[in-house]
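Quick one, T. Sequence first:
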Amino acid sequence: MAVHIQLDRPHAYFTNLDIITGRVILSIFSEETISAINVKLECESRTRLAMPPRGDPRRGPGYRGGDRAQNELEVHKLLYKVQTVFPSAELLQQQGGEKSSFTLRPGTHEYPFQFKIPFNNSCSSSNSMLTNLHVSGARMEMARDTNRHVKKPLPPTLSGFPGEAEIQYFLKATVQRPAFYKENFRARSALNFLPIEPPRVAPNQRESYARRNHQFAPFVPLPQKQSILRKQSTGSISGTIPPKISIDGRLPDPAVITLNEPLPLRVIVKKLNETTEIMFLRFLQVELIGYTQIRAHELQRKEASSWHIVSLANLAIPLGNSNTPINKDMEIDKKLWSTIPVPNSVPPSFDTCNLTRSYELEIRVGLSYGSPGSMKPELAVQSLRMPAQVYSGITPPPALLAELAKRGGPSTTTLGRLQNTTTRPSPVSSSLQPPVFSPSTANLIPPSIDMPEEAPPSYEDAMAEELAPVDGPRRDYQQPLTAPLVGDSKRSGLFGSNERLFP
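Structure tokens:
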């Protein structure tokens, strides 16, 4: 017997509200007796961390285990839906509702299935033994059940941390055979998942920013070499006043970056003193840094990943002119990054039971001063970091937002007021202090009298049953292929996809 899963409409990825339809296809070469065929839609979040040995300062008082280093494995079933495609309800009714076996003739048999992807996870409090099993080479490990669960939106597919962390979505078909000594047949089909983004706040004119100040040093010419006819001259400070500047990196407030879209970034330079010197952009680098917080029971680890958006060097782009007044915005041309989208391998921000992903945007700006054709040798490179959220770019359908408002959630405009009035401007940093991140002082929105006290709304799974799937263009989303972290039949290496695993 051979079993495989065939989807009716394969996608590069699936999202919330999508209806997954397909067929389980059995190719039987001789008569087979089976009791049932089940199809499951699952999402597993797995983490595995090594425990420091006894005496290691990283080992806290809550760690268990002996002197040698051990591994902790934590597994959460974030999504688990089961559908019995054979026998049908009518066939069971004919059998009187009792469990029985059925003999299938040789040939090809097809059984359709259908699942609708919800909004939120439904993490179970306990897992099966097979789910908790992990095989690493010749070593078998068993995960402990955990009581830490959170009710949050389903996270995206995540890979890139082989042997340490992963989030996988998949369909699994199981052909059950009544005899305990006969193997069950299984087939598995991996799915790529990218969630719908949360409701956005109403558009506003406010910006969040990171800022650094810098004071250029006075220019001292190099001393001339001594010759026979003249003595060596000593360098003297130039009579021009070196500029003092501020550098801002600005994002909309709240700071949201969208997958597969250019950064909504502005980089602004200002003169803070009277000087006739002209500023020049010599270097620009924009990097998106992702932080993955990995938890496995008492153990925690933070991994960093990065994506270079822009990296430009050997520039000589003038900013303003010799008559640019103090505090005049000299904005760096957005064309340097406005045509470069955020890579499709960046997972959106998420938080689930044992994994959290957050982001920072790092902007490095290199500046010099002088005049055209005669720039001073000093190159000042300043680094700005801004926390940001990454959204998937899958806009929730209007019917979903209307349903959210109808059920008592704050409207998009009210939510914008709620976000905008909970933050306050911070003082500007000096060049010796870390960069400041705060909303700008301009265009502050005053508190609304009818502003709700509850937290921003989230999608409810009850809405998913009544709404149609997202109808619109689908952007690309890819995750690197890594060796799986799991220990079930097809992925552990112990069993083939159609080999024996007792129920």
